[in-house]
């Protein structure tokens, strides 16, 4: 049966068909999918914190309503993705445990602080922009539940990106101080946004296998380049400077050349040593512990309902 399963798995990948939860799949494929989906889910959940910090300090009711809705969307994406991981046999409580004990990763980007309200706009523009660049191809990833989740998530991410850009346009039409706040936020978030795409291809341990399985459709460097090319004209329209003296159009390549990312910083942040890693995990852990009574009550209620049904 395994041999037959392996054959139909290979055939499905070759023909660009989706792998579904009940299909046979290699253990390593399942393991990679759980790793990536869990990391993605954790990123959405931890990603609520940097922007969530501004909900109480939003400058107007309108901005507060928008930000509240956006952070709620991120919670929804996280829960949606945990459900996708469950279709592979992962246990949600176990995934949360691995996150708060540092055994599973989440995106490096959420370990930087949000110092001013301009950061909310820049996160929408650059961070959600990078997320879309990475996630649109994942709508065609080979694992069915993940691919379908990505379709809806990408629609909401596009909306997030536009709200960020609109916020920044508004600030850029404001006072010189507001324009300076936007430039300062761009200076701080630009390089970390480029790190979201992962290590350079030559150092990416998982890319080759994930491309062969059509989990990933493009390499880390390809998507990083696509993001830079997409963002340069947006920065011009906005009137901000991207903080890279080496950034320039290369007509031969048909792409922008850009400077080297500080990969030592990337490794430090992924390894737990970024400016906010400890705080992010502490907040997540506290929320989990404070929610224990809700989970217990829900489980007790479900058990009581089941007992009544069986009686
Ligand atoms: N932050 C933290 N860890 C990272 C990052 C990052 N920006 N980039 C790569 N890594 C990790 C990988 O998870 C991998 O670690 P592991 O093997 O221990 O799991 C290691 O660094 C080496 O990287 P790769 O071999 O390139 O890993 P992979 O093939 O999984 O590619 C990528 C990384 C591009 C992030 C991929 O996992 C992906 O596309 N994930 C889905 C998107 C996602 O998670 N987005 C989250 C942020 S966006 C948002 O939530 C708004």
TrEMBL record:
GO terms for cellular component: cytosol. One of its GO terms (biological process) is phenylacetate catabolic process. Residues 1-17 are annotated as: Disordered. Pfam families: PaaA_PaaC (PF05138). GO terms for molecular function: phenylacetyl-CoA 1,2-epoxidase activity. Residues 8-17 have a biased composition (Basic and acidic residues). Transmembrane segments: none annotated. SUPFAM superfamilies: Ferritin-like (SSF47240). Gene3D superfamilies: 1.20.1260.10. Coiled coil: none annotated. This is Ring-1,2-phenylacetyl-CoA epoxidase subunit PaaA.
């Amino acid at each position: 049966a395994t041999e037959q399963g392996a054959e139909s798995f290979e055939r499905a990948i070759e023909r660009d068909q989706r792998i579904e939860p009940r299909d046979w799949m290699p253990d390593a494929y399942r393991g990679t999918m759980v790793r990536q989906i869990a990391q993605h889910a954790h990123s959405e959940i931890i990603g609520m914190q940097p922007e969530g910090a501004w909900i109480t300090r939003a400058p107007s009711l309108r901005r507060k309503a928008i930000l509240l809705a956006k952070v709620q969307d991120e919670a929804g994406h996280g829960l949606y993705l945990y459900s996708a991981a469950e279709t592979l046999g992962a246990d949600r409580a176990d995934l949360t445990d691995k996150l708060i004990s540092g055994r599973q990763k989440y995106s490096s980007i959420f370990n930087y602080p949000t110092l001013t309200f301009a950061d909310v706009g820049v996160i929408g523009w650059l961070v959600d922009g990078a997320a879309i660049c990475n996630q649109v191809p994942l709508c065609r990833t080979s694992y069915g539940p993940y691919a379908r989740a990505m379709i809806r998530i990408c629609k909401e991410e596009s909306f997030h990106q536009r709200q960020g850009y609109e916020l920044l346009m508004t600030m850029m039409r404001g006072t010189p101080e507001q324009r300076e706040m936007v430039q300062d936020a761009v200076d701080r978030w630009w390089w970390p946004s480029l790190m979201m795409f992962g290590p350079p291809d030559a150092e990416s341990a998982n890319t080759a296998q994930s491309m062969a399985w059509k989990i990933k459709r493009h390499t880390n460097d390809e998507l990083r380049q696509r993001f830079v090319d997409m963002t340069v004209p947006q920065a011009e329209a906005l009137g901000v400077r991207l903080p890279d003296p080496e950034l320039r159009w290369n007509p031969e390549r048909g792409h922008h050349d850009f400077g080297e990312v500080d990969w030592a910083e990337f490794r430090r942040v992924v390894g737990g040593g970024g400016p906010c890693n400890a705080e992010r995990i502490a907040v997540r852990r506290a929320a989990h512990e404070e929610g224990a009574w809700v989970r217990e009550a829900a489980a007790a209620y479900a058990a009581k309902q089941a007992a009544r049904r069986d009686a």
